[in-house]
Design goal:
Elements (H helix, E strand, L loop, with lengths): L2 E2 L7 E2 L4 E2 L4 E8 L4 E2 L4 E11 L4 E2 L4 E3 L5 E4 L4 E2 L4 E3 L2 E2 L4 E2 L4 E2 L4 E2 L4 E2 L4 E2 L9 E5 L2 E6 L2 H24 L28
Parallel strand pairs: 1-4, 2-4, 3-5, 4-6, 5-7, 6-8, 6-9, 7-10, 8-11, 9-12, 10-13, 11-14, 12-15, 13-16, 14-17, 16-18
Antiparallel strand pairs: 18-19
EC number: 3.1.2.-
Enzyme class: hydrolase
InterPro entries: Hexapep, PaaY, Transf_Hexapept/Carb_Anhydrase
Amino acid sequence: MPCYRYAGVTPVVSPDAFVHPTAVLIGDVIVGPGCYVGPLASLRGDFGRIVLEEGANLQDTCVIHGFPGSVTRIERHGHIGHGAVLHGCRIGEDAMVGMNAVVMDDAQIAARSIVAACSFVKAGFVCAEQSLVMGAPARVSRQLTAKEVAWKQAGTREYQVLAQRCRDALEECEPLAELEAARPALPASAVRPKGQG
């Protein structure tokens, strides 16, 4: 993976984490155990610190950055969807930020909350635990049900398993020119579709 020491500060990646080879880590970045960092993610710890706590996942093309002296933190089992941007904020334990959402400086997404896809969370925003946050600018729409929280948790567990699978089975290769006769299938997901769990 492209990994860069900056001003004498070197990124830290737990040996139990998976960081895709195309993700970029710069400076004060700490990736904890069991984390998954997807392809083309950018973690720029050249101003402030970036922390992914145990079991968090950061999916494809996500960007994390912050102002000088800030800490951008994804707490345990945090789940950040494809293309999201986090800047100087805190994502609580077991919370989720949906695809292409933006969460700005000093915003605090509370534990077990979900930020809906494409939402824009303004600087300084705070919500209560287990909130559904949505819109541009984002507001608390309602409290999440136990079923919705369980759905999120199941998805996060699947990414934790994916981190292990990628450490064991991902390998760079050349593409085939044509489909092989006995093409293997990918392992079936253990996660039930939304609304069935």
